[in-house]
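Morning. Coffee machine broken again, so started the prediction first thing and wrote up yesterday's gels while waiting. Chain of 409 residues, entered below exactly as on the submission form.
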Amino acid sequence: KQIVNYNENIVAKPLAYLAETSVSFGSAKSSIRDLIISETDPDGKMHDKLITSLDIIQTQLKGYADTLIRNGAAGSEEHDMVIGLTLQAKEWAEQIKTAEALMANDKKPQAIEYLQNNVEKNGEAISKTVRDLINLNKEQANISNQTSESLFAKIVVKMIFIMAVGVFVLAVMGLLIIRSITRPVSRMIIAANQLAEGDANMTVVEESSDELGQLEGALSRVSQSIATLFDDTENILTSTGTGDFLQRGDPTKHKGGYAKIIYGMNKTNSAICNHFDNIVVGIAFLSINKKIVYKNKAMVDFAQTHDLNLEDENVLANIISSNKAVQPTESADLRTKVSLLFASKKAISVEDTIVLLDAATGTHRVYTLALHRNDSKEVDIEDRYVMVTISDITALTQEKKESAIVKQV
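Came back before lunch.
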C-alpha cells in the first residue's frame, strides 16, 4: 500500500497533469502557428481550439499544484515551478487575448507581429519550464523506484521476521501441546504398570479438566479402590492366618466387583465359624502372647461349665491349676510343657488328660487337652498361633471304669 500510494501520488498524478498540460500547450502553440500563417480565422475554429487548450492548461496546472500540496510538497522546488508555470500560462493567455483583440479591430499586421514577438517568445519560456518539470518528475520517478525497492526490501525483512517469529511460536506451542499430552500419558503408563505389578500405593495427580485429566482422575480412583481392597483383604487374610476367623471387611467401602470380593471373604469366614461351631470338641486359637483370638461354641460352653474366663491371658494356667487328676508336681510339669510350646522355635504338641469340677453340679468331668503350635514358614513368627482342643471324655472314662468293675467281678 505504501509503494502504490507513493507511486500514485508522487509520480503518477504529477506526470499525468504534465502530460495533459504538454499536450494542451502543444495544441495551443499549433493553433497560434496556424493563426499566424493563415492570418485569419473566419469560422472561429482556431480560436475555440486555442481557448479550450488554455482552459485545459489552467485546470491541469491547478490539479498539479493541489496534488503537491496534499503530498506535503508545498514550498518545494517543484511546487514553485508549477506556480511559476501557472503565472506564465495566465500571462500567455492574456497576450493571446490581446492579439485576438487586435485582429478583431482589423489590425492584423500588428496582431501577427504581436503574436510573433510576444506570444511565441513566452511560449518558448513555458515550453522550457514544462521540460524542466518533466526532467524533475523523471528524477522523482527514479527516487520513487529507489524508494519502492527500499520499501520492498523492508517488507521482505518484516515478512521474514514475522515468518520466523510465527515458526518459533508454532514450534513452542507444538512443544507445549505435545508435552501437555505426553506428560500425563507417561504418568498414567507408569501408574498402570505399577497396578499391573500389584502396587496400588500411588497417586495420579489430576492436573487438568480435559479428557486426559478426567482419565488421570479415573485411574487415580481405580488405584485408590484397589489399595483399599488390598488393605481389607490383607487384614482378613492375616487375621485368618493367625486363627482369628471373626475378622470381617466392610463391603460398603467398596463398589461393584470389589464389594463382592469382600462379601465373599466374609461369607467364607462365617462358613468356617459355623463349621467349627458344629463340632462338639472345644476349639480355640491362641496368639503367641497367649490371648484367645477365636473360640467355637463348644469351647464357650466348656468355659461356662467350669466358670473360666476365656478373655484372661492366663486361661491355660487356670485350667491346668484346676486339674484334679494330677499332683501339684505333675501340674507344674504340664505348665512347663505349655510354656515351652509358646517359647520354642519348633512345632510342638502337648496332650494330657485333665479333670475339672462342674461348677453347676459339683461333679467332676474328664477332658483330653491337646495343644499344637503351627510352624509354617509362610507365616511370620509374631503371626503364629497355638490351637487348643478340649474333648469331653467323661462318659468314655465312666464306661471304662464300669467295664473294669464288671471284669473284676
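The chain has ten helices and five strands. Going to sketch it on the whiteboard this afternoon.
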